[in-house]
Amino acid sequence: MILIPIFIISIGFHEAAHAYAVNYFGDDTPRLQGRLTLNPIAHLDMFGSIMLLMIGFGWGKSVEYNPNALKNDHLSRATMEQIIAAAGPLANFVLAFLSVAGLSAIFFTGSLSFLMEAFLISASLNLLLMFLNLIPIPPLDGSKVIRPFLPFSLLQHYDGLAPYGSILLLALFFLPGISTVFSNGLHSLTNGTLMQMGKILGLGALFGA
What we know:
The protein has 9 helices and no strands. By secondary structure, it is an all-alpha fold. The protein has one domain. The chain is globular and about 55 Å long. The chain starts with a helix and ends in a 9-residue tail after the last helix. The relative contact order is 0.11.
């Protein structure tokens, strides 16, 4: 099944982006833990991998870092942590765009057509991962991206959500009614962005746009 290897590569790229961002800001924790690599094996989480094999969806091992070790003369610690958090979803966006570019090359040259399905799955999956990780619910990346923008009066209440983040995510995925709205919204964002990428790269006919 082609989805699983593409998923593993995409998750590895996502976590590697976090690791390289942490390393860029001076913390060598990811390097010491062997996370400065695009090899997806280094980023696999045992339970996330089991879930991937069982239900077709999983997650990678979170990149650890020491906030006190982050250094930059021009950026605050909060901004550095925002960039570190955003690096993962951005990596998925880059992979999605490159996948659509691969589709465009195949579409216009007529060569390597056997790769079209893989590129299409990669583009859709990476956009899905990007939007999913940008949801502002702890421990997803979106919660760390949005946190510095929140007014001080809301921070305590927002941080109080952290222990319940996993429960909230499970509700979004599995609670009847809510899961349908959530899934439809996520797929609508994914498909809409994919179509816009296709238009930019001249694939309007392929995506029916």
